[in-house]
Amino acid sequence: MKWQDLTDEQLFETGGEQPGSQRSYERELEIRRRAYLLEKRVAEAQIEAANSQQLAATATVRTASWTMYSALAVAVSVVVAVIGLLL
Predict the structure, then answer these.
(1) How many C-beta neighbours within 10 Å does residue 27 have?
(2) Which of 21, 22, 28, 72 has its CA 20 to 30 Å from the CA of residue 55?
């Protein structure tokens, strides 16, 4: 039996190897390998999420800048309209 061919459930349910035996050692190595791969995938997902958050924050800043410019343009338009009405 190859440990790599077993599902996670089968690997963790399988037991009874004599502690210190070669099979026990191989099983422990496979458990560690799978844990490493899982941790690696989690870390990669966290990095991807952080990158997405950074892009979203940049887009929010751009939107806020355009909103400010729009408000300034409206204010200038109002001032020009008021001056036009007073003259």
Answers:
(1) 19
(2) 72
